[in-house]
Amino acid sequence: MWTPAADDLERYRAVQQLAYRCAESVAAGLEPGVTERAVARRMREWLVAAGVDDWFHVPFAWFGDRTAFRGFRTPLQFFPTDRQLVEGMPFILDCAPVVAGATADIGYASSLGANPTLDGILDDLAVHRSLILELARERRPLREIYEAVDELAASQGYENRHQAYPFGVIAHQVGPLPAHPANVVVAGFGLRSLRALVRSATVGRAQGWSPLWSNSKRSAHPPTPGLWAVEPHLGTGDVAAKFEELLVVTDDDVFWLDDDLPHVRRWAARSHEHQSKHAPAEVTT
Fold first, then answer.
1. Mean pLDDT of 142-171
2. pLDDT tens digits along 18-38
3. Ranges of each domain in the chain
4. What CATH architecture is 6-268?
5. Cα–Cα distance between 122 and 119 in angstroms, integer?
6. At what angle do helices 116-137 and 262-278 cross, to 10 degrees?
C-alpha cells in the first residue's frame, strides 16, 4: 500500500486538471458526423502536446447507446469505433494520462445539443459523489459502498452500468510509477501501469485486499490507503453518464482530491440556478 504525501497530491491534482481540460476542450469542438475514433485521436494528440508521457489507458470515446455499454461482451468493444455523433446524442470522453509518474483517470459526459435525459442523470450523480465519500469516511467495506450506490441508483430509476466494465469495477487504485517516460501501450493500457496493477493485485491477494473495487468478495474490506479512480456510471435506456475522479484515502481521512472539476462546478451552477428560480420576489416600496 502507498499513502501519498502532500506534494504527491499536488502532482496528481495537476494531471487530473490537465485531463479534464483536455476533455472540455475536445468536447467544445465536437461536430455532427465526427467519429469516436477521431475524437479519441484528438484527445491523445492534445494530451501528448501538453506533456503527457505515458498512459494508464489511452483515450476512449463513446457515443449514443454505447455510453450505456449496450451489448458489450468483450473488452475490445470498449475501444472507439466509427460511430458518428449526431445532434442530441450523448457522449462520454474518458482518458487516463501519466505525467512524470503521476496518473489521473477521468470521465466527462455531455451531449451534442440538448438531451434532457442526460441532464437528469448528470444532476442525479451528485448524490452518489456525496454518498461514496460519506461511506468511505465511515470505513465501510468497499463491497458495501458499491451495493449502496446500486441501491441509490435503483431508487433514482437508473441501472448500474459500471458493472459492464472488466471485473465489474466502480473504481481502481492508481499509484506512483517511475518518473522516466515509457509510453509502451499494450491492448490500450500503458505497460508500466498494467504491471503496477498486477503487482498490487498480487500483494493485495496475499494481504486480504484488492486494488479493484467491485461487489465481489475480494472487495469485502475497508478502503485501503492510496488513490482510487472512482467512476459511478448510471444509465436509463440507451443514455448513460458518469464522472470519474481521484479519491484520496489516508490512515485517518478520506477526501476527493479536487472539487474544482466540471461536474462539481455544474452541480454548483445548477443549485444556484434552482435557488434563484425559487427565491421570493423582492418587494419594492
1. 97
2. 999 999 999 999 999 999 999
3. 6-268
4. Alpha-Beta Complex (3.90)
5. 5
6. 110
